[in-house]
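Narrative of activities, Objective 1.

The group set out to show that a structural description can be obtained from nothing but a protein's sequence at a throughput compatible with the screening campaign. Below is one input-output pair from the validation batch, recorded exactly as produced.
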Amino acid sequence: MLVTCAKCGKVFNRGPAQVKKNRRGKHFCSRECLRTYECKEFIGQYGGRITRESTVRQAVKGLTYNRVYHIDDIRKLCREAPGKREFTRVEAARMLHSYCYDMVALGRCQWKRVAEADA
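Output recorded for this entry:
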């Protein structure tokens, strides 16, 4: 059965059982197309799903440089950002440390956004 890739538009062959099994109704020609489709920071260009990483990045993007923030303030921003994720303090700290290179931990539950050159 011929199907079309939801990201790149390539036409490829899938078995009838695979087409029936697909609950989403979207088919992808490769894992790369699937990852690109799902991991876009904004829903829009490909209609993808917002990841935990992009939720944290979007929440931090609006923070002022050289200002100290409490982790609970950042968690609140994550709940309001696209994706609306709920993180514990530990999860939020891990996400900030892993994905936000312009955020620096200052101590217990305190984070500061610094310019890229300072980080």
